[in-house]
Write a structure and sequence with these properties.
This protein has helices at about 15-50, 50-60, 60-90, 90-125, 130-145, 150-165, 170-190, 195-220, 235-270, 275-310, 315-340, 340-345, 355-365, 375-385, 390-410, 420, 425-445. The protein is mainly alpha-helical. The longest helix has about 35 residues, at about 275-310. The chain is globular. Mean pLDDT is about 85; it is low at about 1-5 and about 450-453.
Length: about 450
Amino acid sequence: MRHQRGTGNQIIEGVIWKQLLLFFFPILLGTFFQQFYNTVDSVIVGRFVGKEALASVGGSAGQIINLVVGFFTGLCAGAGVIISQFYGAQDSKGLNDSIHTAYAFSLAGSVVITILGVVMSPSILEMMNTPPELIDQSSLYLRIYFAGIVFVFIYNIGSGILRALGDSKRPLYYLIICCLLNVVLDLVMVLVFHLGIAGVAIATLIAQAVSSVLVTIALMKSNDIYKLKLQNIRFHGRVLKSQLYIGLPGGFQSTMYNLSNIIIQAAINVYGTDTTAAWAAYGKLDAIFWMVSGAFGVSITTFVGQNYGAGKYDRIKKSVRICLGMDLVVSVALTLFLILFRYPLFQIFTDDKEVIRIGADMLKLITPCYVTFIFIEVLSGALRGISDVIIPMLLTLFGVCLLRIAWIFFVVPMNPSIHTVIFNYPVTWITTSILFIIYYMYKKRSLKAPSGN
């Protein structure tokens, strides 16, 4: 059922740069607070438990969590694209079928991931060359985290649905509440009950449970053309097929990033606990850039998806140019900030001088090349918004995954050092960004109307 499009949707009608910013900032802040969960865990265990605990939470365990959550987030992006297109076209039946299918998928997927995560965590950590002294603590953290993965999945799909509908504020509000709760619980679990790594994992699980409940209630109380009804959560075959068509390549694309990161983590683990701890702390600082770039990626996907559904193709092309310019300016500013304040930033996580020295050196090497990644994030997000996902996935497979693996197995042995290991990031970013620019320039010439709406 289609409704007449109203005049209130500023994503398809308002000033582009202004609407992108209005949509971007809540997503950025929401991403910041979501990242804040694990960062707080790392800061508290690093300062009050020790560098081994820091390496356990942020090292191999962090990479495994990123792999699983990243894959599911990619799948969520498929649901978000379909939902934004249906909403842009004001198709209420397709919209509601998509929402309930997405929730059904998140519930079913969480059951599978919980079982696999709890059973396989120690084996995966050993395969990653995790230092033996970190295996037990990392396994404990992962098993508790995976036990509550259902809350992570529900929050991500629920907030993704709200953002696809143009509401980026409420997910932010809920996340702020839960992050503050997480900080309090972390401190109580570690300083009062002395539970160490188990304590921060339990605190994170409780906080994520609260966020998942809040976002679900928001969808259930909607007065718009969409409304979540728990009794209607089930799979709708036609919609599920469309969501998987877009979501699976996005999930695999995220998996490729994280698989290559896991391989790099395994190579870094060889250099010992100090280097592993430094890399874990760097990963939290590095996340500042990924939060910004990822927020621009989500913004342009929703922006393009709704305008694609509404048939406004010139507006799509213009919005991509504006988004690239905005991301460029912010990325340069962030790079300068991270380089100038690298030492005091690392001191937030640890007072170990050798860990700080190694981490600051890593940051100085990698961050100047951040600017090249903006083309990958924004252009792949825009292409996803028009349901073009296969070629971007293949470009990522080659430029990020295969090239990084080749670097680790062929280049690193010729000059085995930590610098050689991590320099693969700038090399693969530059290569992949060039491929995305070439493909996007070709694709935008043949932009056509969606066939499914």
